[in-house]
Write a structure and sequence with these properties.
There is one protein chain. It is built from 4 helices and 17 strands. The chain has helices at residues 51-61, 146-149, 196-204, 249-252, and strands at 13-15, 20-23, 26-29, 43-47, 74-78, 83-85, 89-92, 99-100, 103-109, 125-132, 155-163, 174-179, 182-188, 214-216, 225-226, 231-236, 240-248. The strands form 4 sheets. A 7-stranded mixed β-sheet has the order 5-4-14-9-10-11-6, with no helix packed on it. Strands 7-17-16-12-13 form a 5-stranded mixed β-sheet. It has a 3-stranded antiparallel β-sheet with strand order 1-2-3, with no helix packed on it. The chain is globular, with a radius of gyration of 18 Å. The relative contact order is 0.23. The mean pLDDT is 90.
Amino acid sequence: MKLSGIQPIQEGKVNLNEQEVWIDGNSYRNKELSFDIPITGTIYGTLLNYRNAYTQLKEAMYQEPYQAPPQAPVLYIKPQNTLIAAGSLIPIPEEEQELDMGAALGVVIGKTASKIDEFHALDFVEGYTIVNDVSIPHDSVYRPPVKEKARDGFCPVGPWIMSKTAVHNPNELEIRVLVNGELRQKSNTNQLIRSVEKLLADITEFMTLAKGDVLLVGVPENPPRVKAKDHIHIEIDQIGVLENTIATEKASVGGRL
């Protein structure tokens, strides 16, 4: 994990049930700590990797200009300007009324991965984190529009990187999204079309992933739609909770919960 104002990334122990963090022998409640962005590499998103999200758009894939479903993973980048930490405010552009919350499992790469096979894929993983792939609602099929997905502050990450040894099976993790305390989305990584191992193998067949890079395995169907002042709580089993609040662009500069 990385704490605000402290340069090195620190190791700690987390009790997810008690919402407690141990650092250097001292115990803290999660809400007592100010977390910084815990990752250092590039974030790659994956489209259409949840079965129901794929099914919803399948008919459109056969229309112009594509005329057929994609055969390889469809990727995009969440650039540095989009990254914010747990607890930071998510800015909603002044001209927009709502945003989509894209709850995603982030796979953090632990060493250079190129042309790896499924069987050894997890050997290249350092751990897992939670990412909110925020978007302005749009109708794109599987060619993501930069204007809607790469706005400043559109990628909350954290609060930490959970070691892979603490996660029993990345392909069997329940994901819950609560908005203002109300459960608005429930999904599971067992609905992935490509498993974590298969996704890593297929992507590294044509590009290298470097230590610190983060691969989002996908966003479930029907992402919750939110507005200014809404509180977002994304929880992934065995990893933790990522919380942020929506604010107008003018109100959100440098803001935290």
